[in-house]
Amino acid sequence: MDDAAAAGLTSVQDAATSLDNFPVFERAVAAGALKLRFRFAPLILPKRRRCSNPFARGRRCSKNHKLEKPLTEADLAQYRELRDTYKGPLLKFGAIKGFLDGTVDAKTAAMFDPYVGGGTGIPFWNQDDLNETVALYDKEGFQVLLHAIGDKPSTWH
Asked: Before 23, cis peptide (omega within 30)?
């Protein structure tokens, strides 16, 4: 953080926050050690464990991006609490991160044309589920960040 602050950086955003790591930030604030402002965006599907890098080679995490059942307002209770507790200036919640597809190097980004060796990527959502989920977060006042790498929208089947 010293180097970042010395270079003029004043804030950063973690756009796929692991809530398991958040106590480290809380301890840093309590110790007066933060020199940057942090904005956090937990993953769009609460209560689902994920590997730290869902697109790392050899890991099977993409299946966890699918909506298993419609989200309810009760599912968002933890996110509401974080947003209402951490309003800044050093720690702030208010955005949610979702993945619509994967990455090109892992051949999971949704593409119109097949990859060399086959496959056109992995779409994680159907349009109705995505619309419903984004509308729920929007109603709750969250900014929704969506990861979409491929040239084919992942909701087009």
From this structure: no
Residue 135 belongs to domain spanning = 2-147
| CA-only gyration radius of the chain, Å | 17
- Give residue 37's Cα distance to chain centre: 18
The count of domains in the chain is 1
3-state secondary structure of 36: coil
CA nearest 40: which of 81, 86, 109? 86
Give 95-143 pLDDT, tens digit per residue: 999 988 889 999 999 999 999 999 999 888 888 888 989 999 999 999 9
Instruction: List pLDDT tens digits, range 12-42.
Output: 999 888 888 889 999 999 999 999 999 999 9
* Location of structure tokens 């990527």: 121
- Is 152 within the bounds of a domain? no
13 bridge partner residues: 39
Alpha-helix runs per DSSP H in 14-122? 22-30, 77-85
Q: What is the CATH number of the domain that holds 53?
A: 3.20.20.140
